[in-house]
Amino acid sequence: MNPRILVLAHNHPDLHPGGTEIFAHDLFGAYKRAGCDALFVGATNDVHRVRRPGTSFQAVNDSDDELLFWAGHFDRFNMSQTDLYAVVPAMTELLENFRPDIVHIHHLVLFGIELPMLIRRVLPDCKIVMTLHDYYQICPHDGLMIHRETRQRYLSADMSGDKCGLEGISTDRFAMRSVNIRNHLRAVDLFLSPSRFLQERYIEWGIDPHKIEVIHNGRPAVRAVRRRDHGTGGMPNVFGYFGNLNPWKGADVLLNACRKLMDDGVDFELRIHGGAPFQTAAFNEKIDKLFAQTSSHVVRLGAYDRDDIPELMAAVDWVVAPSIWWENAPLVIQEAFQHDRPVITSNIGGMAEMVRDGMDGVHVRPDDPGALARAMADCATNPKLWKKLSGNVRAPANIDDVAQTHLSRFRNLIRPDFVAA
Questions:
Q1: C-alpha pair distances (Å), 185 with each of 147, 199, 372, 421
Q2: Does 289 lie in the same domain as 196?
Q3: Given this model, what pLDDT does residue 224 score?
Q4: Is position 226 within any domain?
Q5: Is the pTM of this model over 0.85?
Q6: Can you count the helices (H) and strands (E) in the chain?
Q7: Which residues, including other chains, have CB under 8 Å from residue 177's CB and lie 6 or more apart?
Q8: What is the Cα–Cα distance from 159 to 185, expressed in whole angstroms?
C-alpha cells in the first residue's frame, strides 16, 4: 500500500508562487498521481488572507484536498508560533482526523518550530520528514546567511548580530535560538536537502549526518520551446532574468553589468521578468533608476504566471541567475534547462552545483557587475560558446520520478517491508 501523506508548506503557490511553494505543491500532485492519499496545507497570514473567526482553516481553491492554515501570530526571530492557544487545537484536530503515515514539512515559517513535537505527541507512530529549502533554522535574517547592510556572506553556523546585521540582539539570544530550534527538530525522522551545499551547512550546524540526505528537486515535464532563429550572422545575445526583484537576487548587479556592456558598445538585450513585491522604497528607487539608465537595452516586463514561461523563454538565448546569497536550488535554473537555455550564474551555493561551468552554463563571481559584464559580453559575441553550452543542457528530473524516490524513503521509514500497492 501507499503511505498517507500530509504536505505542509509556508504558503500556497496560488497566493505566493515562490520556488518552495511551487515544488511542494508539484510534489503533492505527484504523490496523488502515484496513488497516495495526500492533503496539502499551506500556512498564511494577513498578507494574503483575513483571519476567519472560529476556524484556523480556509479554502484556497475548489479542491477538497488543499487547505490554508491561518497562522498570523509568529515570532520570526525564534521561529516560534505565539498563538498556541489557537494553533495547537486546530492542528491536533487535523492530525487526528487525517491520520497521516507521513508528514512532509517543507517549511516551518508561520507554523512554528513547535510543530514537529506536536506531531510526535499527537501521532507517535507517524514519521516526520522535512525538506530543508533554505537556511532559516540557522539564520534569523530570513535564512539568507548574508549581512543585511554590507551584503557580506558567511558560512559559519555560529550566529551573531555582527554576521547578519540584526544589531541589538545579544550573542546569548542567538545561541539559545539555535539550541531551541535544534531541540525541536529532534522529532524529525529524516531531513532532505536539494543540494549537497545545504546539506553540509546543516551538518555543520548540528543536524545528525545520518538523518539528512540529498534528493534533487524535479519539475513537471514540459516540451522545450524552440531556440531563437539567429539567421545569417545573428548572435545569441538576448538575456533573460526570471524572478522577483529584491536585494538578494542580484537584479541591481545585473543592471549595473548592463551599464558596463552599454559603455563597451556590446550589442545585447536583457528581458527582465518579475515584480518587486514587499520591497523598501529605497530599493525600488534604486532599481527604477537603474532601469531608466539602461532602458535602451533592457526591457522591463513585470510579473508573470507559470503558464507564461515557455513563451517568455522562447524570446531569450541565455538565462541569468545572479543571486548574491547562497541559493539552494533555484527554480529558474531548472526552468531554463527544461527549455535548453544555458545559464549564467553566481559560483556559490547550490547554483554552482546545478550549473556546470563551461558545460551547460557559465559561473561568475557574485555581487561583481564587472565580472558579470565580461561573462555576458563573451556570451553575446560568441555563437560557438552558446551552441556548445546549449547542446550540453540536461533537463531536470521529472517530478513523478522524484516523487517515487521520496516514496521509497518514506516506506523505509515506516517499515522495511512496506511495499507499495
A1: 25, 15, 39, 31
A2: no
A3: 94
A4: no
A5: yes
A6: 14, 16
A7: 77, 78, 79, 140, 159
A8: 18
